[in-house]
Design goal:
Layout (H helix, E strand, L loop, with lengths): L1 E6 L4 E8 L3 E9 L1 H5 L6 H23 L8 E7 L3 H18 L3 E5 H12 L7 E6 L4 E8 L2 E7 L5 H11 L7 H8 L24 H17 L5 H27 L3 E5 L6 H14 L2 E3 L3 H4 L4 H12 L19
Parallel strand pairs: 1-4, 4-5, 6-9, 9-10
Antiparallel strand pairs: 1-2, 2-3, 6-7, 7-8
Helix pairs in contact: 2-3, 4-11, 5-7, 5-8, 6-8, 8-9
Bound molecules: 5'-O-[(R)-(carboxyoxy)(hydroxy)phosphoryl]adenosine.
């Protein structure tokens, strides 16, 4: 079954053709990051307009790259939530018109379910149940993936997402948007251990997380140094910051595995590209005897293929919709 999949929830327009949920036939992406970098973050209105400009040509490219014609497409999948509402709406509207024109089923896909499904593309043997650590620019979740479409949130951030925190910390360190990858590169230049940053925990909800205090601490450190004319050890701060994020995420993922009895963990989302988090996860899983899946970097960030992968399993579960599908800025992964 060939699915034409659309992703437009933030600043990447992506269209892919995926066969039977596991094989990527094409994966076309148009990133707007350079444009938003001028403003230090995503400007929602610009994001929506750019999606409109490129989505049609990108769909044609995805078909061409896959060696498909429109008639070869069996269904259309699309991210319908969560994300920037105007941006999501572009993908949903376009996908609806394609499904209608081709007279094929329309499959709504939750963006974070898509991130988790990126693992199915990289690891053919991976099947639920497993535990997912979904860490991206807009979401930070520990999810019990009981089945392909049956998920329960075990822990989540109470405020900022891990990626949002990386991006803001990077900005005060003078790094370009999106800041996660440059922060990662800068952190490699130091052993850290210089800055003592807060590690928050949520009383009574040990699997939940909070990153806003950490973000504020880095912003305050940078502003204070600027005001008193002090030189910051930027590399050490980047390293200590990433370590603080990792120290928040990894022990909670391990604890969630212990509580649920899961012995397989899969990472997902843009922040799963972080080398310190990957290293810590590898070490912790090795020590605990768990099997760890770390998607290749190109499948960590937003892409259309992951929506096609999850779309296949949503289709098998009977989750197709009509032309009344709407876009949503927020929606629970377990709905
Ligand atoms: O998954 P994604 O592409 O978009 C969302 O669904 O949100 O994630 C983007 C986020 C950005 O905040 C970006 O800075 C972060 O992932 N990111 C990283 C790294 N590469 C990308 N964060 C930390 N380390 C990285 N190497």
């Amino acid at each position: 079954m060939k699915i034409l999949a659309f992703e437009s929830s933030c600043d990447e327009t992506a269209v892919a053709v995926v066969e039977d949920g596991r094989t990527v036939l094409s994966d076309a992406i148009a990133s707007q990051a350079d444009m938003h970098a001028l403003y230090g973050g995503v400007v929602p209105e610009i994001a929506s307009r750019k999606h409109v400009e490129v989505i049609c040509a990108l769909a044609e490219q995805a078909l061409r790259d896959a060696g498909c014609t429109r008639q070869d497409i069996d269904a259309v999948a699309v991210t319908y939530a969560p994300g920037l509402i105007g941006a999501v709406l572009v993908g949903v509207s376009f996908a609806k018109s394609v499904a209608c024109a081709l007279n094929v089923p329309l499959i709504p896909v939750h963006h974070v379910r898509g991130h988790i499904a990126a693992n199915y593309l990289a690891f053919p043997e991976l099947e639920p149940p497993f535990l997912a650590l979904a860490i991206s620019g807009g979401n930070t979740l520990i999810v019990d993936v009981r089945d392909y479409t049956d998920m329960e949130i075990l822990g989540s951030t109470r405020d900022d997402a891990a990626g949002e925190c990386f991006d803001k910390a990077a900005r005060v360190l003078g790094l370009p948007y999106p800041g996660g990858a440059p922060m990662d590169a800068l952190a490699q230049q130091s052993q850290g251990g210089v800055y003592h940053l807060p590690h928050a925990h949520v009383d009574g909800a040990e699997l939940d997380m909070s990153f806003s205090g950490l973000k504020t601490a880095v912003v305050n450190l940078a502003h204070h140094a600027q005001q008193v004319g002090e030189e910051l050890d930027r590399a050490a701060l980047a390293r200590d910051f990433a370590q603080a994020v990792s120290d928040t995420l990894v022990p909670r993922a391990m604890e969630a595995a212990r509580r649920t009895g899961r012995t397989v963990i899969a990472a997902a989302g843009g922040v799963a590209a972080n080398s310190i988090i990957r290293g810590d996860l590898e070490r912790a899983c090795r020590e605990a005897g768990y099997k760890l899946y770390l998607p290749p970097l190109r499948l960590c960030g937003d892409n259309g293929a992951m929506i096609g992968a999850q779309g296949y399993y949503e289709y098998l579960a009977g989750h197709t919709v009509g032309m009344d599908l709407n876009a949503y800025a927020t929606r629970d992964i377990s709905e």
